[in-house]
């Protein structure tokens, strides 16, 4: 049952050149056929985590370990990174309008990625591009390949983006808020597509702020708060019974779509501390309703149940 | 309850190059009662923002009329509209662009009252800041010193400065994180209860709308396709589109249902008949030929569908 | 497509018409000034003045005068300079045009390649000492008056060190037509065009650097990196594609105004018989028909170049092709 671990982040720490830590301690795993949702609010470091896996953060100092298919990525030469990017792992972004180059056709941009990694002729690359677009549900893929990004709808653009990401058959697909810029009905289409990709055996890492999106597309979830993973586990278990007070508060803050309408939504008082002013102890302590004296020492992310890990003193044995 | 704002057969069309016409809003009639909150819901391009702006006289309608407190305000000149402006205010999504970055918060908040020559500015600002949950110490600070949630609070305070009867809020929470969004949703609800101000919420988020509004109007390609009490509509939608919207909201408690196919058609070339028939899972031949009119289904509810789900 | 072209041409003609009316009004319809005396030049004989008055119709209404003038400029092309003893003006301008064209083409070649190299280099090495040095050099180039630089170049290459190995090849001042000797043509234009290009290299390198750095912050560049593209490809293929637009529009305008006589100082300093120098001479002698002709010639060039830039824009950016902007 235990599938092969595709990506393993171990105590990933990321800091600015002036020593401010953006990511304090991120540890997580993605297995083949798994989709890991990385959830957090803006500034939590969820996108930074994704970018550091892709090695797209020049100028930041990373320590710890990023292992992809058993190979350590930190300290890799730029040339070797490049061979991985787009081939072994690929990424899709929030806004497919700005993520594509506006002045070249969609097809040309997908062809480019194929030809960057494989020695194929233009004609072969285009044939593959068209086939991919078709598989991603783009109607009339041959014509769509000749169009420019602004000529396609938001949903089709994101499908094209996914087609480009999958063009070299990556083992890992990282999706950074892939549906935030889309309408709900189109979002549902794209999420369905991501589920299919996951089922086809690739590992997916989905960065999002939306617990609902995670619940419906992911198998596992990691909740990030202020540069740390505070809770991790299988989606169903975490949604049904969140352990960390932050996860609980995050789920409660979503207005319900059925049942009685509450007079006031539960909220989290205050706001996350800035990277240069993080508390010594538990990062969530200043906003936590269960705060107690031993929160002054930062709790480690520990396994408390089968497959579930949480960083909170409430679950100390 | 008396009617505060009423729109009759309102349309807003834009002429594009090459003689094409973008029909942003077509033949919309609606009413907002005093103290009531109406939500305009739909996907991008459905015309909800255009409708919201046209309702309060930001841009003249192409046809149709708007009445505010019984008087016709559509077709008035900007000058004549000035008299009405204090009574209807707008809150925008992007709170960072509504504040002049080079002016202090106190300056910006005082401006509407200065323009309209009101007295007691300092007193009013203090009171409103308290109501939106901020201290007077913010007055000498600049917009960039605040978080998105705080700026949205300030934005709401600014809109309330002149004591409006109607607040039009265009996606007031969609740029915010979930935990902050909950705070703003609560705040708007509290303010509505304490001030009795009527609201038009423009939003794509059904969960937020359910929490904030009394009534909901679902729009598709410039027309209202369903309208009614928000709890009743979301409990049992009558229009297939409303149901599809509701199903598409990702929720922690159930799997993803099969999504609607296709994209929203272009409002430049809307489909014949029912605009939704190209994506509707229940479409019949009649739907592509004849446009359904809004008609009552149940108490206080209307739907524009030949084969409603109720 | 054809409709767009037709309407564009119509616009151009309209603009040129407007300019011609304006220029005509300034020179000939200013109240209180006698155009006859102006055309005739200083100290002309009464016979000449009378002939001019009849020939140009200065005793008839203004629209007729305008039409006569345009006819002489564009149709019969027999506008003559009286200061210069009856020399026809239009052929003079047409003779000077190739000289200016050659000079400006060479200069454009230098300033485009120079600014590309400097601009890209300082963008890639931003905030390093190379970047700072290049930008300071650019500023210096931008601020040196072209006539002073030209005089210094002349001083160095023509007299002071002319006999050294380095400058022995430098030909005497003046122009050699391409048809006469392509090599001589290139030699004669090398230093003048380089001198002319210096300021533009400075300006264009700065523009390109800032545009390129803005472009590199775009999402699509991040995508290019995520695809696995190397730095050369990211900078040159993706980055440049995004930062061309303002560079191209700037180029179109500068190129046109130089062709239209903007290279006046360079042409005078290096004794090149181009349009600029012609304008200079006309101004010095107050030769009104000649001024009229050169101004019209310049206007036509600027307008045509503008249209070409717009066309190029559309080629470079498909969003503009459809009359849309941005998102």
UniProtKB/TrEMBL annotation, chain A:
It comes from the Bacteria. GO terms for molecular function: ATP binding; ATP hydrolysis activity. It comes from Gluconobacter kanchanaburiensis NBRC 103587. Residues 7-251 form the ABC transporter domain. PANTHER family: DIPEPTIDE TRANSPORT ATP-BINDING PROTEIN DPPD, OLIGOPEPTIDE TRANSPORT ATP-BINDING PROTEIN APPD. GO terms for cellular component: plasma membrane. Coiled coil: none annotated. One of its GO terms (biological process) is peptide transport. Belongs to the ABC transporter superfamily. Pfam families: ABC_tran, oligo_HPY. Keywords: ATP-binding, Cell membrane, Membrane, Nucleotide-binding, Transport. The keyword Cell membrane applies. The keyword Chaperone does not apply. It is a peripheral membrane protein. InterPro entries: AAA+_ATPase, ABC_Ni/Peptide_Import, ABC_transporter-like_ATP-bd, Oligopep_ABC_C, P-loop_NTPase. This is ABC transporter ATP-binding protein. It is found in: Cell inner membrane.
UniProtKB/TrEMBL annotation, chain B:
It is a peripheral membrane protein. GO terms for biological process: peptide transport; transmembrane transport. The lineage of its organism: Bacteria, Pseudomonadati, Pseudomonadota, Alphaproteobacteria, Acetobacterales. This is ABC transporter ATP-binding protein. Residues 5-246 form the ABC transporter domain. CDD domains: ABC_NikE_OppD_transporters. PANTHER family: D,D-DIPEPTIDE TRANSPORT ATP-BINDING PROTEIN DDPF-RELATED, TRANSPORT ATP-BINDING PROTEIN. SMART domains: AAA. GO terms for molecular function: ATP binding; ATP hydrolysis activity. GO terms for cellular component: plasma membrane. It holds the Pfam family oligo_HPY. Keywords: ATP-binding, Nucleotide-binding, Transport. Belongs to the ABC transporter superfamily. Transmembrane segments: none annotated.
From TrEMBL, chain C:
It is found in: Cell membrane. Keywords: Cell membrane, Membrane, Transmembrane, Transmembrane helix, Transport. It comes from the Bacteria. PROSITE patterns: ABC_TM1. It is a multi-pass membrane protein. The chain crosses the membrane at residues 12-30, 103-125, 132-150, 185-205, 244-270, 290-316. The keyword Secreted does not apply. One of its GO terms (biological process) is transmembrane transport. Residues 101-309 form the ABC transmembrane type-1 domain. One of its GO terms (cellular component) is plasma membrane. Belongs to the binding-protein-dependent transport system permease family. PANTHER family: DIPEPTIDE TRANSPORT SYSTEM PERMEASE PROTEIN DPPB-RELATED. This is Peptide ABC transporter permease. It comes from Gluconobacter kanchanaburiensis NBRC 103587.
